[in-house]
Structure prediction request, 293 residues.
Amino acid sequence: MNNPSSYGVYGFRFSEPDHLPLCNLFAAGHDVVTDASYHWNGMERTDGPLLLFQYTAEGSGIFETEQETFRIGSGRAFLAEIPGSHRYYHPGDSVPWEFYFLLFRPQPLLPLWEDIKSKLGAAPAIVPGSRPIRILRDIVHEAYSGRISDPYIASSLLHQFMMELGRLSSSGPRDAAEWPTAVRESVQFIEERYSSMIGQEQLAEQMGLSKFHLLRTFSKYVGLTPNEYLNRTRIERAIELLTTTDLSIEAIASRVGYSSGSYFIKVFQKLTGQTPGSFRSGSGSLNYSRLFF
Prediction:
């Protein structure tokens, strides 16, 4: 069992001002259940509307929707809306189900929640050491220790959890060592050939993959399409040239792979919010040493 001293369910009923976009934490918990008396039906609960994130530390439970039934084993979570057409329960065997959970009001987090769920699915596997799960455990520990004492602390912790879960869902593994070989080789190809690349069709041919398969796999792990990554790579190189050389805008556009200065300016402004000329001069904005994309 994990940290048995933190077992418990902790509820929060702060008075968040309606005009402030605070995240409303309803409950957090670390629990272990041992038999089928643990059973929740999403259509019978009266404490909604709520969003539930529940993560298994050890053992397993069952999560059912209208479409599928999932066994939520160690390292797996489920995401559910309350009220909603779902059930979750202990399967009735002799193995304890240990889990962490968060319950919170939908607003203002519902759009992010829906985006996360569309990408990860209703019952995703998430590495125990990942940042969202570490923050989940921290929230429960803070609740156990009595340190979630006002709506601002509660909102800050919940917001941090959701941002990290959103980051995980949008970009896949951040460590390039976890990427498939084809993705790592594609990134290397872009970074080495950005000035002469035509686009993702050329990249797909180089990798021996269909354009659709490359687009789907690259986007899953990198968080960008190959063309988006190519443009960011080119603009990063252009920024280096703008700050370290006296080359003209047209010359820089050509050197980083754009066929026309006007298109280069359009892409540069879209990604940085400035034209190359204003970026170089520092007029009308901060004088950046580096921009992160």
